[in-house]
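[Automated response] Your request has been received and processed.

Submitted sequence:
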Amino acid sequence: MMTTLSTSLNALPAEHRQRLMRIAREVSFPAGTRLFEEGGHADRFWIVRTGSVALDTHVPGRRSPVIETLGHGELVGWSWLFRPYVWQFGAEAQTPVRAYEFDATSVRLMCDDDPALGMAVSQWVGRVLAHRLQAARTRLLDLYAPYGSGSGVRR
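Generated structure:
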């Protein structure tokens, strides 16, 4: 688990973060709960308060590998921002999770009404997206390429 300033909620300017937090809803998930399935409708997202969430991806004929584990302050879900609003990964609570939940439609409307907020949210989610895609690439190469991703220790 690696939280960086560029991908955590703290990456947003304080006034935008405060506006989003006004519509947040506190939720809890027991360990083992599926938050969403790859291919499902992306209608919300979460910021982890406590616990950990595993992102996974479907690989035909194999068990879904964990791509990344997310924890405190991290965004769970980015597909809600981009049409056709379909989850690109799956997510499961690895431990009991407490999180802030956001309704995607409400946030998209807020972003439409305030271009500065929209730009900040888009840039934040874009950084998260870039990070997640790189994590997925590295993880899949580690698992399935003949010599891995090359990022690990060679033997």
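Summary generated for your ticket: The chain has one domain: 9-144. The mean pLDDT is 88.
If you did not submit this request, please reply to this message.
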